């Protein structure tokens, strides 16, 4: 592929005072000598006229550098921890993970002073590590390493669809997120030769220029599912369940059903909308096959993906989907999700993705059909390392969602569903709030994050001596599990 | 049976709950911008803020939704947000601040907690936090998941059930069927082991029990004649045989301590239509006791753990694990269906009810939770004779009852979520359904079996 990989481009925060780990205190004794401007390797200080001012406080890496404080002739500077950072983040997405995702979205590469690989949940991905000692022979930088995966392994006469990176974007509907967010995701995915997904809120016309990189989702509410939207897509995704609210269906509150959303979904503004659970036309695996056949008939070129959550018998569900003719089985684990869901469901119903992937992978191997179906994992994939671990556990690729929103400066405050929606203009269709985001900015932020992920995956593969991401699938011998765990936060 | 419906009414707290974060707004450094970020707050908290002169608190921390918009957008960088130390001080290591504030919100609104952007807690934890409940991908007898919820029953029966009926040669029933109470939610009320609760608190609970049609287990010492109008929804907890003889004849349920269990037959003779519940501490002996008592015609066993759900033992096990043990041993003996098992202690979230039932209890008895719903902060100052900071003894019983009703509605709705996801239409089917639960240790070993440990 020409021009591969796409280039990163610096895209700073849209806020005046982006949150950083450290705060700098500049006392009145500063004589504007400018030594700090000179010594700071991170461009924190700048001259404004004759005066020194702190322009990019959030790039400060703190006490491990401390050059400015030590060299200031007037002792006018102090670096302290930013107390607001404590109010940011949680066990799964620590403040370091959020800040480092912002950093990657700004610069296109991983940071060197923050934990950007794991969170602090004390289980799953956070307790798995790569055993880089295993392969003594690291690949040299000259050797080509491929991250591409093929999404059609059935040999059924349907087109080969290859994505250049082992991830694509999860469904987020128009209504739950703004059109700008949707377009930015689609544009970034097109640049990286991957896909994004419409979610179940219909197919906005503005997405048509990117149609080769947009998956049409068919979900239980069937909002926006029409012949033309099915025909347009290279991949059609059936959403049976969502990891965050398995077995519960969706609910878009009336506040978020603005006139635009209502038009797209062919409903009435201000009236809340339910996506029921389950498909009322599917009560058995035979019904499921009928469903898949229906889409295959309408669009003879489309690949079929089946998105399910992770119950005890997820392995049986996966094989059922294979026999129904699906190309992709998409497992959505319980700890992820972007939209609003009952807390009890997110925490308790169905299992985390880390535990479901090996179960399904092994079962499909035993059944002898693993080579004919693609396993895609989602639900709590936050970082490039999570991706690589998911693949080593047995997935072919992953789907991301929350991380892309964090790239757009989501703080995970969790207020997506209340009132007008996201206070940062990401997950909202409120005209005033969604105008907070510009398309170019958003596209580049997501693309930069992808760039950083790509660099990290290549790096992991080189360390493991692998030429292709496909060699990593199911290689649990490359991993080890931290047996003793203590919270490091 | 008519559809069960709980009427929710917004019932604000009397005291402003401490916000999770504190907003620090330094005026110095303010650039005096024409369009101040405070005016652009998406939740309008700066306009709504006021100073509460009774609690000496700024309301902004309660309204703030932690979006950090103002913090990042203020060009002068004058605003910061920090974790509120007063928030951290609520509750204890088990009844954590986030659990308590969620109970308050549910008691206020009657709505289940909903949030966006995925789960945020630890991967697993101890106690109730090392298991998940199952879901069913397509088979759905309840249709529409939660939206077919009116068809899901949360009824349970309390009392002894016969394994079989005996008829004489003429076909006449000779077995006598023990009394049975059906309640529409698998949750009963009792008082915690500690605290000085005033009469208003007791009336709040009794009123809520009557409205919800469940049972409130009231201590005999507190049962005065003004509680008599609530008798259909009361169980009376006694300490001695003398107290039993002083009980009204139409009492529905008597709770006796384990020490009086040898008098069960005698009590049943005096109160044939009253259900007798035996209160047993969860301890290493509990399993043997449950077997012996069930074989000796016990009707209802109430197992209680401490407020953190722990057994009374040197190396305490957790309530759900002991209940599982007891349930399975009764199943092995083929007598599980004869007795009702209720459990209390450490039940602080709706999911704990579901998980206790999955591990083998028929229902849960809620204790400390009720006080939290009435705004108790678990400071336990009352135990040292210090006045209650929220003046709990002087609440309005109607206000208190509505808080409890709201909370029960939110909890029942969450139970329906779990049942709906599993494709079950009856909470009685959930009892002991461990095959439809996912236990962390089991799945971890299965999933990561080929991975080295370090």
> Are there runs of chain A of 5+ residues with pLDDT below 50, and where?
none
Provide the domain count of chain A: 2
Kindly report the CATH topology of the largest domain in chain B.
TIM Barrel
**What is the CATH class of the largest domain in chain B?**
Alpha Beta
Task: Tell me about this structure.
The complex is a heterodimer of chains A (489) and B (454). Chain A is α/β, with parallel strands linked by helices and 489 residues long. Chain A has 2 domains: 22-81, 2-Layer Sandwich (Alpha-Beta Plaits), CATH 3.30.70.20; 149-481, TIM Barrel (Alpha-Beta Barrel). Chain A is 29% helix and 15% strand. Chain A contains 14 helices and 19 strands. Chain A has helices at residues 35-39, 67-71, 95-107, 179-191, 227-232, 259-265, 285-298, 314-324, 343-348, 353-366, 384-393, 402-407, 431-434, 439-464, and strands at residues 22-26, 45-48, 51-54, 77-81, 128-130, 149-150, 162-163, 167-169, 196-197, 214-218, 235-239, 250-252, 273-275, 303-308, 328-332, 341-342, 374-378, 397-400, 479-481. In chain A, the strands form 6 sheets. In chain A, strands 8-18-17-15-14-11-10-9 form an 8-stranded parallel β-sheet. A two-stranded antiparallel ribbon of chain A has the order 1-4. In chain A, helix 7 packs across helix 8 (314-324) and helix 8 (314-324) crosses helix 10 (353-366). Chain A is globular. The model of chain A has no long low-confidence stretch (mean pLDDT 91). Chain B is of the alpha/beta class. Chain B has 2 domains: 21-89, Alpha-Beta Plaits (2-Layer Sandwich), CATH 3.30.70; 145-443, TIM Barrel (Alpha-Beta Barrel), CATH 3.20.20. Chain B contains 15 helices and 18 strands. Chain B has helices spanning 45-48, 60-63, 69-73, 85-88, 97-109, 199-212, 241-245, 264-270, 286-295, 319-332, 350-358, 368-373, 397-422, 427-430, 440-447; strands at residues 21-25, 51-52, 57-58, 79-83, 114-115, 131-133, 156-159, 180-183, 187-190, 216-219, 234-237, 253-257, 275-281, 300-304, 340-344, 363-366, 437-439, 452-453. In chain B, helix 7 (241-245) links the parallel strand 11 (234-237) and strand 12 (253-257). In chain B, helix 6 packs across helix 13 (397-422) and helix 9 packs parallel to helix 10. Chain B is globular, with a radius of gyration of 25 Å. The model of chain B has no long low-confidence stretch (mean pLDDT 92). Chains A and B meet through helix 7, strand 16, helix 9, helix 10 and strand 19 of A and helix 3, strand 4, strand 5, helix 11 and helix 13 of B.
């Amino acid at each position: 592929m020409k021009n591969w990989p796409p280039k990163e481009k610096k895209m700073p925060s849209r806020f005046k005072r982006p949150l950083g780990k450290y705060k700098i205190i500049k006392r009145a004794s500063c004589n504007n000598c400018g030594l700090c401007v000179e010594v700071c390797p991170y461009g924190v200080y700048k001259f404004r006229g004759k005066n020194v001012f702190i322009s990019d406080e959030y790039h400060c890496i703190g006490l491990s550098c401390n050059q400015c404080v030590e060299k200031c002739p007037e002792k006018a500077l102090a670096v302290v921890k930013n107390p607001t950072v404590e109010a940011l983040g949680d066990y799964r997405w620590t403040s370091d993970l959020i800040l480092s995702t912002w950093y990657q979205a700004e610069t296109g590469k991983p940071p060197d002073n923050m934990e950007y690989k794991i969170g602090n949940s004390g289980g799953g991905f956070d307790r798995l590590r790569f055993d880089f000692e295993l392969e003594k022979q690291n690949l040299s930088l000259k050797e080509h390493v491929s991250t591409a995966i093929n999404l059609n392994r059935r040999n059924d006469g349907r087109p080969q669809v290859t994505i250049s990176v082992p991830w694509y974007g999860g469904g987020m509907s128009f209504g739950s997120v703004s059109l700008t967010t949707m377009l930015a995701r689609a544009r970034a995915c097109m640049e990286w030769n991957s896909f994004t997904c419409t979610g179940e809120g219909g197919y906005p016309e503005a997405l048509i220029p990117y149609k080769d990189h947009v998956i049409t989702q068919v979900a239980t509410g069937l909002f926006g599912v029409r012949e033309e939207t099915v025909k347009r897509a290279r991949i059609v995704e059936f959403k049976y369940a969502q990891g965050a609210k398995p077995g519960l269906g969706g609910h878009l509150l009336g506040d978020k059903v603005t006139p635009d959303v209502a038009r797209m979904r062919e409903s009435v503004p201000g009236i809340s909308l339910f996506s029921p659970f389950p498909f009322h036309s599917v009560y058995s695996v035979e019904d499921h096959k009928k469903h898949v056949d229906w889409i295959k008939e309408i669009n003879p070129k489309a690949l079929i993906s089946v998105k399910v959550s992770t119950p005890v018998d997820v392995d049986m569900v996966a094989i059922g989907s294979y026999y129904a003719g699906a190309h992709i089985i998409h497992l959505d684990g319980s700890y992820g999700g972007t939209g609003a869901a009952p807390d009890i469901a997110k925490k308790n119903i169905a299992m985390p993705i880390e535990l479901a992937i090996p179960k399904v992978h092994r079962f499909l191997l035993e059944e002898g059909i693993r080579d004919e179906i693609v396993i895609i994992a989602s639900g709590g994939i936050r970082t490039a390392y999570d991706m690589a671990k998911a693949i080593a556990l047995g997935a072919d690729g992953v789907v991301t969602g929350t991380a892309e929103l964090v790239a757009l400066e989501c703080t995970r405050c969790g207020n997506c569903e209340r009132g007008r929606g996201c206070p940062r203009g990401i997950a909202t269709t409120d005209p005033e709030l969604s105008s907070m985001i510009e398309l170019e900015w958003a596209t580049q932020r997501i693309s930069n994050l992808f760039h950083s992920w790509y660099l990290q995956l290549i790096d992991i593969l080189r360390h493991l001596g692998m030429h292709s991401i496909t060699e990593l699938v199911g290689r649990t011998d490359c991993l080890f599990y931290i047996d003793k765990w203590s919270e490091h936060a | 049976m008519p559809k069960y419906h709980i009427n929710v009414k917004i019932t604000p707290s009397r005291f402003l709950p401490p916000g999770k974060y504190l907003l620090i707004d330094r005026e110095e450094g303010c650039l005096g911008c024409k369009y101040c970020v405070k005016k652009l707050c998406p939740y309008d908290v700066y306009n709504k803020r006021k100073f509460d002169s009774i609690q000496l608190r700024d309301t902004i921390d309660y309204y703030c939704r932690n979006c950090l918009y103002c913090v990042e957008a203020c060009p002068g960088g004058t605003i910061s947000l920090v974790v509120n130390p007063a928030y951290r001080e609520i509750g204890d290591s088990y009844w954590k601040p986030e659990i308590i504030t969620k109970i308050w919100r549910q008691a206020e609104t009657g709505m289940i907690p909903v949030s966006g952007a995925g789960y945020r807690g630890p991967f697993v934890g101890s106690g109730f936090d090392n298991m998940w409940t199952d879901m069913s991908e397509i088979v759905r007898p309840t249709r529409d998941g939660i939206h077919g919820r009116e068809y899901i029953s949360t009824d349970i029966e309390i009392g002894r059930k016969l394994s079989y009926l005996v008829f004489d040669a003429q076909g006449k029933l000779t077995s006598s069927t023990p009394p049975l109470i059906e309640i529409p939610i698998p949750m009963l009320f009792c008082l915690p082991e500690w605290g000085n609760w005033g009469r208003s608190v007791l009336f709040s609970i009794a009123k809520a029990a009557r409205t919800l049609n469940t049972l409130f287990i009231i201590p005999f010492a507190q049962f005065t004649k003004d509680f008599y109008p609530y008798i259909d929804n009361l169980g009376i907890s006694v300490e001695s045989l003398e107290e039993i003889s002083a009980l009204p004849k139409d009492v529905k349920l008597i709770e006796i301590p384990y020490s009086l269990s040898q008098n069960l037959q005698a009590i049943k003779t005096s109160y044939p239509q009253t259900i007798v519940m035996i209160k047993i501490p969860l301890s290493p002996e509990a399993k043997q006791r449950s077997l012996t008592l069930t074989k000796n015609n016990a009707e209802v066993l109430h197992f209680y753990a401490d407020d953190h759900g722990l057994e009374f033992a040197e190396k305490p096990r957790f309530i759900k694990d002991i209940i599982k043990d007891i349930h399975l041993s009764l199943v092995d003996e083929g007598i599980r269906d004869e007795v009702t098992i209720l459990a209390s202690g450490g039940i602080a979230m709706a999911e704990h009810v579901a998980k206790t039932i999955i591990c083998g209890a028929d229902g849960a008895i809620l204790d400390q939770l009720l006080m939290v719903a009435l705004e108790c902060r678990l400071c336990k100052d009352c135990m040292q004779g210090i006045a209650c900071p929220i003046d709990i003894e002087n609440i309005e019983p109607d206000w208190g009852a509505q808080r409890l009703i709201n909370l029960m509605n939110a909890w029942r709705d969450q139970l329906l979520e779990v049942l709906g996801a599993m494709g079950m239409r009856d909470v009685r089917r959930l009892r002991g359904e461990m095959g439809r639960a996912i236990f962390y240790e089991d799945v971890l070993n299965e999933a990561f079996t080929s991975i080295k440990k370090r």
